[in-house]
Write a structure and sequence with these properties.
Ferritin, two-stranded parallel ribbon, globular
Amino acid sequence: MKKKILFPGLIFTALCIGCNNSGGSGTSSDSTSVKGDSTATKTDTGSSATIEKNPSTLSKDDSGFIMSAANAGMTEVTLGNLAIKNSSNDKVKAFGELMVKDHTAAGDELKKLAAARNITVPDALSEESQKHVASMEKLHGKDFDKAYINMMVEGHGKVLKEFEDIQAKGSDAELKAFAGKTIPVIKGHLDSAKSIKASIK
């Protein structure tokens, strides 16, 4: 991947699931305003979300995870579509298609969970993610392939940690179940990305 480009934080990603980190694991989220018991939560995603739920029933880590995972997932989908367009490698193109499919599905499920908790997830990438996408748009062929797969390996590793952390330490049962169900998918993506990376010279 040309010069090393750091992956934003997961996705979500992830699938994402995204590779931005949440809570103690470094997930990012921007301003999150809470109605009722007004509490603001800072996130790295660079987007605002409104939480209309008593903060005592949704922890700061849980809300931060939702924002980070949503951004990571959208980033994975955007980069996956770019891989289909800019890659010269059939394996990379196929991986990009998988990212679009899996992260779109995971993102839709996450949005439903968020909506049920009166959280509006951003519909645009964070500023940091946009910068990464912009830099990748300039690459084509082998340069793109190397940069993209390196980003996928690094990003999925970070997102996997976020999902494992929320599954183990989260306070929302449904969110923990979502993380637990998605972890094997993220691991599969990570293994595939590592395999492709090893095959690219």
